[in-house]
Design brief:
homodimer; 76% helix; mainly alpha
Chain lengths: 331, 331
Amino acid sequence: MLEKFNEYAKRVVDKIDAYIYNVVRGEPETLYDAALHLIRAGGKRLRPIIVLAVAETLGADLEKALPFAAAVEIVHNFTLIHDDIIDEDEMRRGVPTVHKLWGQAIAITAGDLLYAKAFTALSKAVEVGVSVDRVVKAMEYLARACSTIAEGQAMDILFEDREDVSLDEYLVMVYKKTGALFEASAVLGGLVVTDDEPILKTLEAFGRNLGIAFQIKDDILGLVGKEEVIGKPVYSDIREGKKTVLVVYALQRLDQEKRERLLSILGKKSASREELEEAANLIISTGALDFAYRLAREYAEKARAALYRLPDKETRRVLEDLVDYVLVRDR
Amino acid sequence: MLEKFNEYAKRVVDKIDAYIYNVVRGEPETLYDAALHLIRAGGKRLRPIIVLAVAETLGADLEKALPFAAAVEIVHNFTLIHDDIIDEDEMRRGVPTVHKLWGQAIAITAGDLLYAKAFTALSKAVEVGVSVDRVVKAMEYLARACSTIAEGQAMDILFEDREDVSLDEYLVMVYKKTGALFEASAVLGGLVVTDDEPILKTLEAFGRNLGIAFQIKDDILGLVGKEEVIGKPVYSDIREGKKTVLVVYALQRLDQEKRERLLSILGKKSASREELEEAANLIISTGALDFAYRLAREYAEKARAALYRLPDKETRRVLEDLVDYVLVRDR
């Protein structure tokens, strides 16, 4: 299982990283170290792998797709740095977060630097032969995705103060916060080769649904994942009062008393381990995990259905594996 | 004096603002209110005016230059929001800063949103007939400027902990932090019409030198400006330990004892009004103001010299006025 994906990742990850390191270079060293910290610490490179596998499936050479691949990974890492400041998270990918190591001022600035570098990477596609028309389209698409991510981030923040977030609102939020960049990754992979609207729409459906499935699975891992595997403290979603799919579901199902109890722990920064476990158990008691698994599978199947409309190539199998991976992953 | 500039500003500012409001629109409302807060509060729109006046001087229609003009003003406002968080400033343009009103999480995100919107504005230049080649060049140039700004911001932060910043280092920092966006504004104005290298180099020289002069004048206003005119507390540079040109100069001129005294107040968050005034007087006693005025004038004259290589049009006078304005402004 996941053979094609693992093989492909092995083949391309060093190229992606080399491209990123070549673009994200400069002075002062402190700033660049901070900007590259999480990239160096690991990460799965899912988004650039989507760009590359989509582009290859549609007939492009790998090299031609690298600038767009680097761009989406750089954007992803920029959002992680700013998210960690916003959520006051101290660990990510098994290492201290950027603001923990360099302070908030440098961390904000390092995120801003990466944002700029993403568009620099994008512009380099011209040098490897992507048509300028499609580079401008890619810029427009990536910029819109970045606005959408900011909107999703804001919804996530504002939801912390609300007790009545509906499943529909949750789904809009995760589409924006997570789905939009997966969507952009798939579409940018397409734009390396074509601007055929039906193909781009298919890619959009693939990326969007995959991204939503990914985030739902992320919510699940936040509740039942192993700390040493996911690289950050479990239950941090509860401590931060995040309206995950599990919390949204549980708040609708619990009786008045248990609901009040759960609400009293959600977002309590000083919550003890016992309280966090109590909250987790209240959530689990509603069958929220089962609901979330089914929901994630539903979106993953939509993503898979979109894939079947692409040419039947080796690299398409990589993307099919990726759909499975999103569901089975433990980190 | 400044007649041409004032007339021109009157003619174009509403168009710039309308363009920005059209691009920066969406939900959640809270996020967009935060993002637009400083734009609504005022500002001089110097950077977009440079874009427009340069483009018109080179023969473009105003409408064709509006997307690039909006882009640089949006970038400027994004940097203000993040700068205010970093410097913990509470007032700007006579109103509370974004993080004071909406909190840090929304403020970081509002800045990120504007960043994305700048590139969205840029991409719209295609719709008004700017060639895609030059739009890609503009993206590349603006992205590089944004990286440069982040580098300058990081230098500014790192300088706070240093006592031996040289004038040369200061000049690199202000070029990066402030000069780069003025430079990009002038070059983007050029790219509306042409990609002739000598013209773009001339515009670069104009923008870069103007920007450096602007920042030196800003340092001066931070020491001797009137609070109710500049819209923020005077002496905040001293409280934050900023290595302004005045501080750099003074630290090189003061005797050991006075130097130690100045250093003991620089960056002291709890400094009293008396201490801040004492520090200001120590700085002034070295002749730093006179030195800074001369330095600002020197850069302004370089900017003016570059202008004389552009076609002799009405709109060039606007830019000439702007050089004067940078020197005489009191806010």
